[in-house]
Amino acid sequence: MGYSEKGKQGFQVKHGLCSHPLYGCWKRIKTRCYNPNCADFQDYGGRGITVCEEWKDDFSAFMEWALSHGWEEGLSIERIDFNEGYTPNNCKWIPLSEQPKNRRTVRQITYNGETHSISEWAKIIGVSRRTLTARLDSENFTLEEAFETPVNKNLARR
Questions:
Q1: What would the pLDDT profile of 22-71 be if each residue is shown by its tens digit?
Q2: Residue 33's closest CA among 58, 10, 16, 56?
Q3: pLDDT value for 152
Q4: What is the pTM of this model?
Q5: Which of 114, 155, 110, 115 is closest to 131 using CA atoms?
Q6: Higher-scoring residue by pLDDT: 18, 79
Q7: What pLDDT score was predicted for residue 108?
């Protein structure tokens, strides 16, 4: 750290860490938040998602936070509240395999003080995702009934 180099765009790079995996992560975050030509812009910058001032123009600050908050290769940054921006208080590192579970389009249900996706709840309570979804969407089931009604094995076999 500490020496300068010319970046691809001709600007000064002060950290010399452009080849570090975290640098790519940082650049992707900024691109989806600020570049309207980015394919993901509509889901990030287009919705008002931003990068905090602390990180926006200072890769070293982002890297310092990342390393002190458990980053390691194979982890992906996640915003805890997907309606808020990239800030130290709203981000954490998770396995890449967990990332698809945390999209805005994944339906989250809170029951008995726990929040999970429908797929996760289905596994927990021992019904199919399809059955649980049908119950939750039905006017014939309350939330409690959707979770507590046993599966009628005889009807399922007909």
A1: 999 999 999 999 999 999 999 899 999 999 999 999 999 999 999 999 99
A2: 56
A3: 73
A4: 0.58
A5: 155
A6: 79
A7: 78
| Token pair of 82 as six digits | 């997907």
Give the type of residue at 129. Answer: R
Tokens found for residue 14: 């002060």
**Average pLDDT rounded to a whole number, residues 75-95:** 92
- Separation of alpha carbons 113 and 125, rounded Å: 15
Q: What is the rounded CA–CA span in Å between residue 109 and residue 93?
A: 23
Per the CB < 8 A criterion, the answer to whether 118 and 132 are in contact is: yes
Torsion of CA 120, 122, 126, 127, to 10 degrees: -160
The predicted-structure confidence for 15-36, as pLDDT tens digits, reads as follows: 567 878 899 999 999 999 999 9
- Write b or e for each residue in 98-117: b if 16 or more Cβ atoms lie within 10 A of its Cβ, otherwise e: eeeeeeeeeeebeeeeeebb
> Are 132 and 143 contacting, i.e. CB atoms less than 8 angstroms apart?
no
